[in-house]
Amino acid sequence: MKQQIAASLELAFSQYGFAEPNVDKLKTACNVSLRTLYKHYPSKEAMVVAALEYRHQRYLAFLDNGPNQNAQSSLEIIFQRLETWMSENAPHGCLSMNAIAAFPDNLIINKVVKEHKAEVRQFLALKSQRAELANSLFLLHEGIASAWPILGADAVKSALVSLSALMHTPQPTH
């Protein structure tokens, strides 16, 4: 039940943002009683955190394309999947960044978002097989998510061009 509520909260915050839905609207979106909602998530902050954590797991599972074969093609697939994710799940931009914008002073929400972003960065480093490119790949990823509401699929096309150039830079020798 708790996971089901978290999934519904993720969808509600994605559709309505963080400012608009009050707890009554969230209860309706979750199709549970107010008592059940508060039993599992005793505050709106807890509801936001649950939605973000649920989305984090879903997001990384969605992007993961299995074991690495060729690093560049693996990253290209990830960016193409990101295009699908943005069009289907985040047409208004990154839910995590929207949460920080809505709750800039909330330490718990900021911590959850920072942990999510750190894991995405690590995931991209792993898939690239080039740890030294982690920050650059993360910036491309975040650029797609940030520019999506304005550029749409063109953000992915531009990132793929940059990705190709980045992956062809020589690896540093130690």
Automatic annotation (TrEMBL):
Q: Which segments constitute the HTH tetR-type domain?
A: 1-59
Q: Please provide the record's keywords in A-Z order.
A: DNA-binding
Q: Which Pfam families match?
A: TetR_N
Q: Extract the GO molecular function terms from the UniProt entry.
A: DNA binding
Q: Indicate the residues that the entry says bind DNA.
A: 22-41
Highest taxon above the source species? Bacteria
According to UniProt, the name of this protein is TetR family transcriptional regulator
- Which species is this record about? Marinomonas pollencensis
Query: Lineage of this protein's species?
Result: Bacteria, Pseudomonadati, Pseudomonadota, Gammaproteobacteria, Oceanospirillales
